[in-house]
Amino acid sequence: RPSSDLEMLGRRLNGKTSTGTGTSLTPLSRVKKILAVFGEERAQSLVEFALVFPILMVLVLGIVTFGIAFGTYQTLTNAAAAGAQALSINRGNTLNPCTLVSGVVFGTSPYLVKNNIKFTITTFLPGTTTGGTVIAGPNTANPTCVAPTNTTGSNLTILQNNVAQVTLTYPCQLSIFGVNFAPGCTLTAQT
Length: 191
Description:
This protein has 191 residues and is α+β, with helices and mostly antiparallel strands. 44% of the residues lie in helices and 17% in strands.
C-alpha cells in the first residue's frame, strides 16, 4: 500500500500499474489519469482561453490602431494651428504665404507623409466666415500661391483684420490584419 498521495500519483503516471490492479496504462488512459489528477477545470480554462484569445487580440490591435489614428489627428490639428499662427504673425511680411504655411506644417508634423497632407488656405473679410478668397487649394499637396510680387498675388489678400483659415486633410488607415475597416477615412483639421 502506498504511503502517501505522491507515491500513488507517481505510480499512476509511470504507467506501471493502475490504482493497484497491476494492469498497464495505455496512452489514452494516461491522458484520462492526468485530467483526473489535475482536474477537468484546467483543461476547460485552456479551451476557453484558446477561444477568447483571437477575439482579445483583435480588440487590443483595434485599440492600438485607433490610438495611432488619434495621434495622427492630434499632429494634424497642431500643424494646422501652427500654420495659421505663423500666417497671422507674418501677415504682410511674406510674399508667399503658401510656402510659409506649408513649411511650418511640415516642420511640426515630421512623421506624416508630406505628399499626403492636403492644404486649403482661405481668407475672409472681418466678421464673415463664408465667401472667402481661397489662396491655396482646395486640397492640394505642396500648395503654391499665385505669382507673388509686391503689387500682385495672394500675399495682398492677407490684410490686417482679415481672418485666415488653414484646413489640412490627411488619409487615415484603420487596418487590422490587412483588413481596412474604413477605406475612405480622411482626417480633417481646421484652424
